[in-house]
């Protein structure tokens, strides 16, 4: 945290570590000396424990592929350049510069920041978790677009949830379905993943219940998050038995052989078989936002357990059918939810209805089926690109098309329309102000840790977004002036001039 005009402004955390590339493409290099990548700050990396399907994604190298509509045979020196700005995220290996041949056009892509001010550098691609207003590449050049890749939790960077923050970008790939290159189902590998037979039969689940297992599992070691999930679970525990194995609200020890896998996002076989014994899994995301759904939701369904879910407000839009998830917000109180779970625990016929989607004929959601069938990227599917390279090619094709329109307009402005600017909006990312997991915010004590962190972080992120927008509007080249611009905005607002 750092002081700005008498206020505390949080520094954004660093997210993902570097990745190997899915596709091997023809090598190109710049004549300038190549700059080393900046190392990730280990302290920042641990601050948010980012959740990303990328951590489980497999990468491989295959021969370069030219799209069927790509007739772009320009030399590397003629291609537009895409600059990956985030130090730890460049989806190619080895080197820091590659040529990519996409569906309809080709580009050079690089992580070498020396090209920032090049005329040929057409677009800068940012990783959302790493995007910091006080480190933005300034001045922002008129001929360059900005692209945002952000598949992680909204809590990692609330700047992107505010209008002034998200409209800095021209192209987006986020978990929101409204983004240009949606990543909504990134945690769902395939339809077959859902259709896998239940890992533990209902008969055996009932036997485990008789032997003392609670009906509900809570497995969480990342406490104090914007969704304030522990506050809700703590209240729910008053009305129904919950076995909690993680660091948050822990009331039961894990078997010793599972301790190293408890917080893993990977699907360790022993860990999976252990948690599959439970009828219900509390699946509460760390941040609340439309379309933000992680393995917390899909993994219980894969195993044949029933998720009790809070996260995306529109989660039902993506469910296999209208009877496959229990949504916490459908219940007036934790007590009402507990009563409903108890009734299902005691009625096998009603409980099993939540697992009928395991039969292909019972998957009736055409939106889900179409999205899985038409997405061009794959999750651990080596026949398809991963979504990092997919978005990169999306930006490449968009930029080549934009540049072609600009050339035509300059050549014959009367015959060709002027290029139309493209700008992201809140449907691409916007997430709401964090609220208490249970009860009203007025009832939360003033010294409550959650209250002192997340609502403030949300509004301070708006300050940073507005400050960066001001820097760009004034054509500033020094991002460290952000704090001064934030203070100036605050003064004007106090005087009623903003």
TrEMBL record:
CC terms in the record's Gene Ontology section: endoplasmic reticulum membrane; Golgi membrane
All residue ranges annotated as the Fucosyltransferase N-terminal domain in the record: 79-182
Q: Fetch the InterPro entries from UniProt.
A: Alpha-1_3-FUT_met, Glyco_tran_10_C, Glyco_tran_10_N, Glyco_trans_10, GT10-like_C_sf
Q: How does it sit in the membrane?
A: Single-pass type II membrane protein
Per the record, the domain of life is Eukaryota
What does the record give as the reaction this protein catalyses? Answer: L-threonyl-[protein] + GDP-beta-L-fucose = 3-O-(alpha-L-fucosyl)-L-threonyl-[protein] + GDP + H(+); L-seryl-[protein] + GDP-beta-L-fucose = 3-O-(alpha-L-fucosyl)-L-seryl-[protein] + GDP + H(+)
Q: What is its main location?
A: endoplasmic reticulum
Q: Where is the signal peptide?
A: 1-28
PANTHER family this protein is in? ALPHA- 1,3 -FUCOSYLTRANSFERASE, ALPHA-(1,3)-FUCOSYLTRANSFERASE 11
Q: What role does this protein play?
A: Protein O-fucosyltransferase that specifically catalyzes O-fucosylation of serine or threonine residues in EMI domains of target proteins. Attaches fucose through an O-glycosidic linkage. O-fucosylation of EMI domain-containing proteins may be required for facilitating protein folding and secretion.
To which protein family does this belong? Belongs to the glycosyltransferase 10 family.
Q: Under what name is this protein listed?
A: GDP-fucose protein O-fucosyltransferase
According to its UniProt entry, this protein's organism is Myripristis murdjan (pinecone soldierfish)
Its organism's taxonomic lineage begins at: Eukaryota, Metazoa, Chordata, Craniata, Vertebrata
